[in-house]
Amino acid sequence: MLMGWRGETGQVIVVVGAPDGVGGAVAEQHAAAGDRVMLWGRDGRAVAASARRVRGRAATRAGSRAAAMPVDAFGLDASDPEAVIAAWNALVERCGEPDALVCVVGSSRAGGTVGTRATVSVTRHAARRFRAAGRGAITVVLTGSAAQTEGPGEALAAHLRELTAELADFGITVTTRSVTDQSGYRSPAARRGAAQVS
């Protein structure tokens, strides 16, 4: 079982984008491991439906352990910094400060398109909050053509390099993954555990 900053209650994970695809798979893995997950997407109603499906699959996958771990949803325009701040503050009031952010870049039926502007907006705010908290992890998952050949694009790549350098001294990781290695996706807690063993 993955243990987080709050012991038995697991971590608080924000997953932005593709709640009906890659984002949903990431959310399911975390929920099944005992983490509390918040799915964010542009279409609140569609994201809420995705959260219900993820919750059911995670409960089936992990048994009663996951049944108590909510998978919640929040509709917002992630490219709007004010909306991101409001959503983050609402999450903190309800669950405490998040431990990790997973941002899925690409198309999604439920969440619309999460592009460079939204990714920069969300990761920039997460970086400020994680730095203040002295902990956290940011993962950007590339989907579609970005995962296959194009990469994250020049603007996003530059932003992620900047964040990585800015957060390194605080022990906060910034990781980029592609959908092709999604089967190998490991939560921040799992990566920390692996690092401690090696």
Which short descriptors sum up this protein?
single chain, 198 residues, alpha/beta, 8 helices, 7 strands, globular
Question: Would you mind describing this structure in some detail?
Answer:
The protein is α/β, with parallel strands linked by helices and 198 residues long. The protein has one domain: NAD(P)-binding Rossmann-like Domain (Rossmann fold, 3-Layer(aba) Sandwich), CATH 3.40.50. The chain contains 8 helices and 7 strands, in the order E-H-E-H-H-E-H-E-E-H-E-H-H-E-H. Strands 1, 2, 3, 4, 5, 6 and 7 form a 7-stranded mixed beta sheet that branches. Helix 1 links the parallel strand 1 and strand 2. The longest helix is centred in the N-terminal third of the chain and has 19 residues. It is globular and about 40 Å long.
The CATH superfamily bears the name NAD(P)-binding Rossmann-like Domain
Strand content: 15-25%
Provide the low-confidence segments as ranges: 1-8, 108-112, 181-198
CATH architect. name: 3-Layer(aba) Sandwich
Helix and strand content put the structural class at: alpha/beta
- Mean pLDDT, to the nearest integer, reads 78
The coarse silhouette is globular
> What gap, in angstroms, lies between the N and C termini?
19 Å
Helical residue percent band: 40-55%
Computed Rg: 15 Å
Which CATH C-level class is it? Answer: Alpha Beta
Helix tally equals 8
Counting DSSP E segments of at least 2 residues, the number of strands comes to 7
Q: What's the layout of helices and strands?
A:
Elements: E1 12-16, H1 22-32, E2 36-41, H2 44-62, H3 64-67, E3 71-75, H4 81-95, E4 100-108, E5 112-114, H5 116-133, E6 137-142, H6 144-150, H7 154-168, E7 173-178, H8 188-197
Parallel strand pairs: 1-2, 1-4, 2-3, 4-6, 6-7
Antiparallel strand pairs: 4-5
